[in-house]
Each structure stands twice: as C-alpha cells, then as structure tokens.
Amino acid sequence: VTLTLHLQTGVKMGGSLSIYILAPRIQTYFFRELLLEHETCGYLPPPVSRGFPLREGDILSSGSRSAITCLVDSCRWPRSVDGFVYVPYIISPLYGEIAIETGMLDISSATCVKFVPRTHEANFLNIQSRTGCWSYLGMIGGSQTMSLQSPGCMWSGVAAHELMHALGFVHEQSRSDRDHHVSILWENIIEDQRHNFRKYETNNLNTAYDYSSVMHYGRYTFSEDGRPTIIPKPDPYISIGQRDGPSLTDIHKINILYNCGRY
C-alpha cells in the first residue's frame, strides 16, 4: 500500500503506532505499509495510531490511567531528598544518543527534572526504536517503554515532546480552555481520528494557553483533505505545531508540576 503525504497532512495507517517524520528536504521513509513523502520547514506531520490503545495519537494507555487525572502524585516521578527529580533511562544501542540527550538537556537544564543513565533503579524509561514516536503518560513503574523510531523520530524536539508525555503532560490543545484559543475544524479531520481532538477538564497549572508549546498539534494534524484542522484565534496566522524544543511556558509548567521552586 502506498500513501503519499505532504507536510502536516493526516494519514491513516494499519497496524502501527504514532508516526512523526522530520527531514531537511523531501525524503521517503517506509514504515511497514506506509510511504511518507514530505518536506519540512521546522514542523512535524501528525501522529498516527490504529489498532493500539493510544490516546491523542501518541500517548500509550497504561490501563486505568486517564489523561484527565495525571496531575496527581501517582503520575509524577518522585522527588529525591536533594530536591531534584531523577528520571533514570536506558537508550537502545541501535541508534545514536545525541538527539535524545539534547531533548533531555533542553528540559533538565531549566528544571529540577534530571534525566540520568539507569544503574539499578526499578522505575526507568526504556527508550527504544519501535514503530513511531510514543510514550506512556507520566510514570507507570518498572521498565517504561518510550519509542523514538529511527530515523524519523530522531530529532531533539520530538524527543522533548515524548519526554513531556512521560513526565505527565498531554497535548496543549487538549486543555479545558482551548476553545477560547483555537477552533477545531471537525469536518476536515479524518473521521476515525476525531477522538484525538477531545479536550479534558484540566487545571492547566494556572498558565496561559501556549501556541508555541512543543506539545501543540500542527495546523494540519489528521487532515482528511489537506485543509486545516486547527485554526488559532483571534489571530489565525499564529504558528502552531513547532518541534524545535520546549517553549518557555513548557518549561514553566514542568517546574510547577514538579514543584521545582527556584527554577
């Protein structure tokens, strides 16, 4: 099966998890039965999911956990006695670590959350090159898989996006107040992907809506026909969907959720 896509165009895909692709020029990647052709200008196509318990396209369900209730102690990685939050990790030897560790550094350099190579810890991120880019929501305990498929997901901003899921954050446009800031064009969304645009009753950590968040969908995410699925308001020309790295507000929210204090 051959499927041709353009930048930020939604796709359908059987038997795979979410996909993010980013390339400096038009390139072609094969993922099982999917062919992607696109060019990029610093944005990513949308995640894709079919046949797996994913919510919002790239958040793997851990059973009973709801994205609505993640802002609780059971979802956060624990604080150490020294005040830092250490998130142990291992990285598959199948690919290089630079992009992943850069995404980690973008977070840890400005927050109390520190990603550290695992030694003997029971709870840790197991970063592998599986199908697509996806993560569990918050800490689930034990060996916690996070997928960054090589080469399409191997960009620091994509790594930071999935790491923020692992820290407990859902997508920005899922906020309870999103309708004040964006319009969802339901008629342009692939029908069986509309569930990814649900909003949740969140407390939003008392932060302003962030169009520049690394957690925000792009303008054409899950588009049925190449038309926009999300339009910012009141200014429809505001850029959304960047994957360069965490925004200042993303960092601020991590510091709030994890009570980082001096950061």
TrEMBL record:
Cofactor entry: Zn(2+)
UniProt cross-references to InterPro entries, sorted A to Z: MetalloPept_cat_dom_sf (IPR024079), Peptidase_M12A (IPR001506), Peptidase_Metallo (IPR006026), ZnMP_hatching_enz (IPR034039)
UniProt enzyme class: hydrolase
Gene3D superfamilies in the record: Collagenase (Catalytic Domain)
Keyword Chaperone: no
Record keywords, A-Z: Disulfide bond, Hydrolase, Metal-binding, Metalloprotease, Protease, Signal, Zinc
Residues noted as binding Zn(2+) in the record, renumbered to the chain: 161, 165, 171
GO terms of molecular function: metalloendopeptidase activity; zinc ion binding
GO BP of this protein: proteolysis
PROSITE patterns membership: ASTACIN (PS51864)
Signal peptide stretch: none
Domain Peptidase M12A: 66-261
E.C. number(s) listed in UniProt: 3.4.24.-
Cofactor notes: Binds 1 zinc ion per subunit.
Pfam families, A to Z: Astacin (PF01400)
Catalytic residues (UniProt): 162
Record protein name field: Metalloendopeptidase
